[in-house]
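Input.
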Amino acid sequence: MSHASLSPAIDHPAPTTPAAPPAELSLEERLTLVNAAMTARLDEAAVAYEVNTAHIPTEPVDLADVVTVPLTPMLQPPPQSYPTPIAALLQRAHHRLLTGGWCSGALVDEDGARCMLGAIRIEARGDSGLEADAASVLLDAIRRKFGDDVDSVPSFNDAHGSARTPLRMVDQAAGLADARGL
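Output.
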């Protein structure tokens, strides 16, 4: 056995012909390559973002808060009334808030806008039992959506800086009252 057979084998690359210079790419071919590279980078970034933000708690977005349409409440006729008294009262209160304005911190502000309870009160037309029942259904609808931590209709109303959520809850309460036959 010779020492030459114990030495490690060295890979020598096989002689090759010199590489041909790359062909010029057209503008469309270069754009296609750049588009493919950017798509791959964006896909990687999207996965990295999902991984990096998976631990952050989020609340689902209510589409009613995002999708809006122009409202011209003064030009809109009142909707077809619900057949039951409490549902009809809540529906009238909702329409009153749409047309007359919403406020917080008072039953009625200096411009005539009303809070949720103020709208129910004026639409109850002095029937305190009907008013109390409507306020109770409204509070139930609010608690279904926002939990039992809500103390009262006025506290819920005053906790909002815009009319969007309070109006939506009065409308949902009208539907709830109708579903219950109230």
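The first helix runs from residue 3 to 6.
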